[in-house]
């Protein structure tokens, strides 16, 4: 499945209370409540090259705000969407030609991100975080194009399956606290992946054959087995050459 791991961290919290409370309109950041608030706040001077669209009420509002970039450059550092229950999607072309190094979405009702929204950032994006949200799907097939992406944090969403991941740059992939029952086991090309974090459903099948995993200790293994013991799941590590510490 995943080649060239130094360490593999599989985290299983099947008893963790799933489902978090998506923020309501009243949880919106306080600064969004006053009349005439812009959907996005651009802070090219205060906090260099950051745009925070946490106050947006719709995708269209974000899109409209990006139609004229108030910053002197289109190469920004960070995009934020936080504590927002109204924006459901990051649509195609929403950022126009503005690119980011970090895209951070936290505690939102976001269900979908269009891969083309990431296109302007394809040679700059280092971190993509979408957590505590409602993501049902993620454009994993777009990862090979994100040439500098090192951190992909998708924990606490509603993902159900993971295809074979291909990324030359990816170092950390976090998929914990989703509803994942299927992980594509062949075709992974992640030569720099060091941390893989996921939680399993009881019937999950995990295939770790033919990897270079050097350490998989009890603290990691036991919760996985406990989760799987409640269903028909399995872990297959057949063919490991390395010695396990179980
Ligand atoms: C976008 O929001 C900023 C406030 O951060 C504002 O100055 C700018 O005029 C807005 N742009 C458009 C096109 O609405
Ligand atoms: C994400 O949102 C949660 C809930 O509002 C908050 O507790 C947490 O600190 C946030 N994390 C980051 C990295 O912003
Ligand atoms: C796991 O599989 C068993 C037998 O195939 C089935 O009865 C059970 O409903 C499944 N559990 C889940 C959580 O899907």
Automatic annotation (TrEMBL):
Swiss-Prot/TrEMBL keywords: Cell membrane, Disulfide bond, Ion channel, Ion transport, Membrane, Signal, Transmembrane, Transmembrane helix, Transport
GO cellular component, one term: plasma membrane
Gene Ontology biological process: monoatomic ion transmembrane transport
Domain of life: Eukaryota
PROSITE patterns the record matches: LRR (PS51450)
Location of the protein in the cell: Cell membrane
Topological type in the membrane: Single-pass membrane protein
Signal peptide, first to last residue: 1-19
InterPro entries xref list: KCNMA1_auxiliary (IPR051432), Leu-rich_rpt (IPR001611), LRR_dom_sf (IPR032675)
Keyword Cell wall biogenesis/degradation: no
Protein name per UniProt: Uncharacterized protein
Organism in which the protein naturally occurs: Darwinula stevensoni
